[in-house]
Amino acid sequence: MGISIVFGGASYEHEISIVSTIALKKTLGTYIEHYIFLDGDHRFWLIPHEYMKSSFFAQGLYKTKAKELFLGNGGFYYPQGLFNKPKILKIAVLYSLIHGADGEDGTLSAICEFFAIPYIAPRMQACVLSFDKSLTKLFAAQRGVLTLESQILTQQDTPPLTIPYPVIIKPARLGSSIGVSVVTQESELRYGLDSAFEYDTRVLVEPFIENVKEYNLAGCKIGEEWVFSIVEEPSKKQFLNFEDKYLDFSRTQQVLRADISPTLEQELQENFKKIYTDAFEGALIRCDFFVIQDRVYLNEINPIPGSGAHYLFADFLGTLQALSANLPHSKRIKPSYKYIEQIQRAKGK
């Protein structure tokens, strides 16, 4: 059983989603049955395997060389001519690689639930909690996971900072380090806020801690078994912006396995479990942690990590296959008309 990947979306992270999917093509090969592209106008396209190249999307060639798809009960459909019924595209499992809006915000998950399409991604409620960084902090606190202190600012309400400098400013509902900046003094604050407000109406401010230990851990729960990636220690550079993450190919080709004790690795896994359990089943996520004075803090949840975080797993294909076979199923409620006539008579109508 293979998977079909859906990618793109009307998001600031649209291009990153395309690159993630192309990277997985090299890793998963023929295990990927279909590539389904969601363009900026919310139209779905079935992309032939041979066209999975960045230039194909940059030049808009999908509009003439790909087949448009339409959603319906059970999956995607494509027309077969004027007088024939649309034909369903056979999909075993849909794997979402839509980063940011349309994917990580829960939109696609809601669509899949509505049309009864089996999918690998966080369920809608989990997306809501992980997409907004301020809600993530509330969720983590409820699960007993530490986070840094923070302050939320909006374009309509920007009170004085309660957090001493230096601070890091982030759009509250965006990833990939887009619109993120480090502010060391008050004279830089306005520019940092303007950079973040360009992408979101809500901004998260946190203390920026020099030389903080940062560790990334991906994983999922399959049945009763936990599957974890290696623990990655990102580059030692103080702050990785968008260019560092996605345009520095020398870095992206190297994964630094963290040189940590078994005790710390287990502690990171336990915090991951607290976040994942009864919330993210059916998804493969990555949690980014800080370690400060021997205490583990959640930095953020990546509900749909770049390239699926495949580079962190010894057997990514096997993990996806097992996860595909152990997805949660929503109970479909069938309407009953048992009492409708009685209710109507009681209302006197």
Short structural summary:
With 349 residues, the protein is of the alpha+beta class.
Keywords:
alpha+beta; 349 residues; 25% strand; four-stranded antiparallel β-sheet
Residue share in β-strands = 15-25%
Q: What's the rounded overall pLDDT mean?
A: 91
Strand order of the largest sheet: 6-5-4-3-2-1-7-8
Q: How large is the radius of gyration?
A: 22 Å
Order of helices and strands: EHEEHHEEEEHEHHEEEHEEEHHHEEHH
**Main sheet properties:** 8 strands, mixed
Report the helical percentage: 25-40%
The parts where pLDDT drops under 50 for at least 5 residues are 245-253
Q: Give the overall shape, derived from the CA principal axes.
A: globular
Description:
The chain is α+β, with helices and mostly antiparallel strands and 349 residues long. The chain has helices at 14-28, 54-58, 62-65, 107-114, 124-131, 133-142, 189-197, 242-246, 249-252, 262-276, 316-324, 340-346; strands spanning 3-8, 32-38, 44-47, 67-72, 75-78, 87-88, 94-96, 119-120, 151-154, 167-171, 181-183, 202-207, 213-222, 225-232, 285-292, 295-302. The strands form 3 sheets. The protein has an 8-stranded mixed sheet with strand order 6-5-4-3-2-1-7-8, with helices on both faces. The protein has a 4-stranded antiparallel sheet with strand order 9-12-10-11, covered by helices on one side. It has a 4-stranded antiparallel sheet with strand order 14-13-15-16, with helices on both faces. The radius of gyration is 22 Å and the shape is globular. The relative contact order is 0.13.
